[in-house]
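cron nightly-structures :: item 1 of 1
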Amino acid sequence: ENILVELKENLATITINRPLKLNALNKKTIEELHVAFKKLDENKAIKAIIITGSGEKAFVAGADISEFADFNVDQGTELARKGQELLFNFVQNLGTPVIAAINGFALGGGLEICLTCDKRVISSSASIGLPETSLGIMPGWGGTVRLPRLVGFNLALGWIVSGTPQSADKAMTAGAVDLISEPSSLRKDALTVLVDLATNSPEFLSQRTTKLGPAAITSQEASAAAEDACNAVRSRQGENYPAAFSVAELMVSACELTRDDAISLENHAFFDVTQTPQARALTGLFLGEQYVVKQAKVRNAPFAATSQPVAYSAVIGAGIMGGGIAYQNALKGIPIVMKDINQAALDLGVSEASKLLDRGVKRGKLTEAKAEAVLSQITPSLDDDSITNCDMVVEAVVELESVKAQVLASVESQLSSINSVITSNTSTISINRLADSLQRPANFCGMHFFNPVHAMPLVEIIRGEHSSDQTIAAVCAYALRLGKKPIVVNDCPGFLVNRVLFAALLGMEMLIAEGADFEQIDQVMEKWGLPMGPAYLSDVIGLDTIVHCYSVLLKGLPERFIEIEPSRSSQVLFDGERLGQKNGLGYYRYSKNEQGRPSKTADTSVIETFENLFGKAKAFEEQEIVSRIMGAMGMEMVRCLEEGVVASPTEADMALIYGIGFPSFRGGICRWMDELGLSEACAMGDKYSSISPLYAPTEALRVKAAKGGTLY
């Protein structure tokens, strides 16, 4: 099912070819490869074997994690041992020379296959690597053993600990491959190397023998290299990604062992690492990314036969946001009209797109000619008629309901096709209410881009009461073409991300009102893993936006979002004309650093103001700070799941990963609550529910907790 075998005279070629899927190693593929190699080795007419992948995209992109994720330690250790017996050790021990023709990604188990071969020829466009630590795990099919015996211990350690894929050039320099070939001549060049190898059998057999012994390094030297590598990881990621430290420890322990003894150590260490919360979170994130894309495609499937991809798009409202949306469309090959009523706004929008393209040229991602071609796909216009033939429109005017309603009605009247889709880029305004201004509300939904558009992967697709399935499907397909991750949510105050984010921010506001130091809160939450603490984040978002969003949630969900006495800290700052980074004054004071970016420092005037209002700042226990902020977010997300605002814990967590940079190693707020245990989450909620109803567990959550259930 998953491989092709071709025989030509005394040469065999095995091509890994999983139909309709990216090449990956699952149990079925490993078993089929074993049968093929065994039969070919028994066939005395076969003098050499090439193994490659179909097409140019992937040799093998890694193990099929979805198949291996639920094994316990004993099952997993046996699987790794069986994999070595059936494939990896089996190939390395064959009496027939084997060469890997690496046609695309050879990652994880893909590279581990290549390492068992006698020679490796790589396409110039291909890359190799052992990226398992980025998934919270480690190589499990001999990568930690074979790579250091091929390229040297220090280099192998660096590759494995960082998890960074390596280009063909870097692989060649390291000695991980023997030849770089152009994609069109890969098999021909592999054959040339193989013929030479087959005629010099004593050489390849002697090379195999050296790979069966210890690595060329002492344990003392290996320990020193491992300490340096681990310190480098700590400087970047702290202690939050323990797989890197585990793999370094393993490689030191195994460096003076024979191949088989070292692989036995790896088998046990690998499945110990898979049992960590970080591994569950990061592998869940990997699978979650695939799930989000799959859901978008599933929504479009019923309409695939009749729907057409977007031919012409429009963004209504220029400026920074409009320019970012226009840039993203043009970059992905979708011609777009950028419409505004103000020439200055159009100029700003074009300037934003030009700036992003210039940055791409400077970084070598675009040629100047390509950048000019992309910019030519954007048509700035003051003319209403310019959008007539557009089949997808994104309204992105000022965040005022009355203005948006008026603009949406005008846009609808200007479109020539009754099938054109209109979306509103809003972060707070009800899609159901905006739909009242339209004659064809079935063709309308929300499309909430996150700022900056080019950098943020998430797009919330907000379904209104009248939004048709076909409209939602079309907008999901459009978002995928833009390179974004669409997550469909139902209309409610704040939608999904802002609703749960502002529950967490209100948790901070309540702490400050009780005398907590906002700088301590930021430090604790950044140590916990957030990219920036909640006060700092508020400054980045803008305190004017913060105050506006609170007003929506206080009005829309008054049973839980309750005003704080004597006042919210954000409102106090806003009333003092502090807007955050927008005017350099917020919770912190900002000035430009050497790179021209805002740099924050403490502001004594803010500290004095808060002391006058809330009393002298006092230290809180770190765990209480985490519980008060993440507990509020978690309970509000539970309500969003129970209300059907979001369809699944996977989509809920991916929205926070994509939308606010929730720490990957924690996997999302639902994953965090599952790791905590729902009974413990309910107890935590009960502890603080007297402070705010935001913390109160729902009855459904209590029932689930009592049964030992989980959100996932």
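cron nightly-structures :: done
The chain is about 50% helix and 10% strand.
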